[in-house]
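Box S1 | Example of a co-folding query
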Amino acid sequence: MSGSRAGPRRDHSRAVEDYLKAIFKLQAESLQVSTTALAGELDRSDASVTNMVKALAEQGLLVHEPYHGVRLTPQGESTALRIIRRHRVIETYLIERLRYTWDGVHEEAERLEHAASDELIDRMARALGDPDEDPHGAPIPSSDGVIASRDLVSLTELPVGVDAVVREVSDEDSVRLRELAAAGFLLGTGVVVTDRSPDGDVVVRVAGGVQTLDAVTAALIRLERSETTRVDESDDSDKGR
Ligand SMILES: [Zn+2]
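Box S1 (continued) | Returned holo structure for zinc ion
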C-alpha cells in the first residue's frame, strides 16, 4: 500500500530537488549553464533534461533562454539552498555524532536530504552548535538561505610556489576522498605546488611528503592562498611575548 503512495509524485519532487541543486552548483562554476552541461552533471539524456527544464520554468523555478542556458530564479535558488543545507547538515551530523568517516556520508546524505523536514535539519544543526561548514569544508547555508561566499582557488589553478591551505574537498567521489585523506590532503593542511606536467598532473608538497595528483583529482581540492595571512602576521606580533 505504501508503494503506490511513494510513487511518481515523490520521485518527481526528488528529481526537481536534484536538478535545482545541480544548476546551483554549475552556476557557481560558470556564468552560463547549458542544458548539455546539466545533462552531463545529472547523467541524464538531453531530451529528458529539456523536458524537465521546461517543467521547472513553468513552475517559476528557473528561466531558460535559448543560447543563454538556464538560470535559477530567486525561488529556485532558495529551494536549492534549502536542499544543500539539508545535505551538509546531515553529513556533519553523521560524522560528528554517529562516527561516520568523511568518505562514507555522501550517499546517505543524497538519500536523506529529500526525506528530512526543515525542522529536523534545524534541530540537528542546533545540536551541532550551528556549524557554518560541513566536514568537507563546504559552507552550510543558514536556515534563512544565506550561504558564505569565499575566495578559494582550485588546486588545478594554484600557481607553482604559492603557499596555500586546503579549505574544501569535494565529497562526491568516496574513493578519491579516501585516497586524498591518506595522502594528507585534510582541511587546514598547508600545500605548495612544485611542478605541473603538460597533461595536467600536479606535483604537490603536502604533509611532509610529495604527491602527484591527476587533473581530475586535483580539481576536487579548493584552497585559500596563504600570502595575505602571512603579511598580516608579520614580526611585531611576537615581540611582546
Ligand atoms: Zn555530500
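The first strand starts at residue 62 and ends at 65. The CA atoms of residues 10 and 114 lie 9 Å apart.
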